[in-house]
Amino acid sequence: MALVQLFWLVALALLAGYLWIKKRYNFWKDCGVEYIEPEFPYGNFKTLGKVEHIAPITQRHYDYFKQKGVPYGGVFMLTSPLLYILDTKLIKTLLVKDFNSFPNRGVYFNEKDDPLSAHMFAIEGNKWKTLRNKLSPTFTSGRIKMTFPLVVGVCQQFCDHLEEVVQRSNEVEMHDLLSRYTIDVIGTCAFGIDCNSFRDPDNEFRKYGKIAFDKLPHSPLVVYLMKAFRSYANALGMKQLHEDVSSFFLKVTKDTIEYREKNNVIRSDFMDLLLKLKNTGRLEESGEEIGKISFEEIAAQAFIFFTAGYDTSSTAMTYTLYELALNQEAQEKARKCVLEIFAANNGALTYEAAANMGYLDQCINETLRKHPPVAILERNADKDYRLPDSNVVIKKGRKIMIPTFAIHHDAEHFPDPEAYDPDRFSPEQVVKRDPYCYLPFGEGPRICIGMRFGTIQARVGLASLLRRFRFSVCDKTQIPVKYSRTNFILGPANGVWLKAEML
């Protein structure tokens, strides 16, 4: 009798679960929103992290909705409804005009158990707003100019090292080398530490930076569940970062602060500015009161500055050289631009010259269009929101997704999107185009705060390389390049091998 009762209880539970899932998967149909039929239990993201990166998945979804001619469309991440936003005018409305309705990214963080995860990219609400206001002055053009000599110094070491490498073999894996360049730049500008990644490629900064990106502690499915049920994940003490990664960066930050304060060390770098905020709440002795920040806030911001800055910039530079190796005419045009800039500045590279590099900037912009570092932009509704000119209401807590990669590959915005054409970003072409179809750094109040620094870092590196080397494809070059399926950044799965020749 007990077995019969257990059988019926299990049967009823399974039936209830089936009916709940069926009703859940009718969510967008009931809302009158065009949607793609989901597949239990993955929804519309069955291959995510297993077979492919999210970029091609969102491309297929985008193409489906474009064929339907709708400004937005529904999909499911597991059983959770998610709304794609396709229309550029609506994107502008949600990211800028109605930002207060969608102020948060919905990224997982655990401030108590995993303090480094509570960085500015992830935190929300008034805490994010306050911290953003405190840190924004550290990323002005004037502040970045102070770190420019440090960037140039590292770049000189990089080019000298590449010259030695090329003398042994002219087939070079550029993503690895460029990662070392950006690690050294961030190491010196954020921590005042000479990482020396060219002589010591296995240094701790590089080691833990690679772990942070390449060896994620959780699968994409678990990460999504942590984001969707953050309060429960926080209660369980779940962490976004590896314990050893967190311990390393907390220790480095602590040691750096203690050494500088004990020895009264002053450097023109990012950490110096954070220390001024920590101790005085001001960036200048007689400047305006911005507000003090804690040690944990310093550590978290230094961590995200390091991890986000090194991988996004090195990947963008790698893809630029890859595309220029495939397009020799564009490479020669970029080199001519660079040589003219160096000649006009007596063979040196000044901050003012690096701030506007003409055709090289067009090449970088076209690379960021074709290979955007972040394939999607996510936002969570902070309140119930009715989409303009519709009856569709996005409930508080629901997620919207802007498929940046797919929009960048839409022929309506960029004809022949798979072609690499830097002329798309000539001043004449840019003014003709809707600015919200190009979003490599996001947009609105949550646009990437380190955008200027990352761009300067890439310009200096690429200009210096093109001045001294010519790049072309070799037998090891993977064409087309394949994206890593596990890295959130749109990085190359197998590196990028190129032939480098000294000029």
Characterize the structure shown.
The chain has 19 helices and nine strands. It has a four-stranded mixed sheet. A three-stranded antiparallel sheet has the order 3-9-8. Strands 5-6 form a two-stranded antiparallel sheet. It is 52% helix and 7% strand. Helix 14 packs across helix 19. A hairpin with a 6-residue loop joins strand 5 (385-386) and strand 6 (393-394). By secondary structure, the protein is an alpha+beta fold. The radius of gyration is 24 Å and the shape is globular.
Task: Please give a handful of descriptors for the protein shown.
single chain, 503 residues, alpha+beta, 19 helices, 52% helix, globular
Give a brief rundown of this model.
With 503 residues, the protein is α+β, with helices and mostly antiparallel strands.
SSE order and pairing:
Blueprint: H1 2-24, H2 27-31, H3 54-68, E1 72-77, E2 80-85, H4 88-97, H5 125-135, H6 141-168, E3 171-173, H7 174-191, H8 204-214, H9 220-228, H10 230-235, H11 243-263, H12 270-280, H13 295-326, H14 328-344, H15 351-354, H16 359-370, E4 377-380, E5 385-386, E6 393-394, E7 399-402, H17 404-408, H18 427-430, H19 451-468, E8 469-472, E9 497-502
Parallel strand pairs: 2-7
Antiparallel strand pairs: 1-2, 3-9, 4-7, 5-6, 8-9
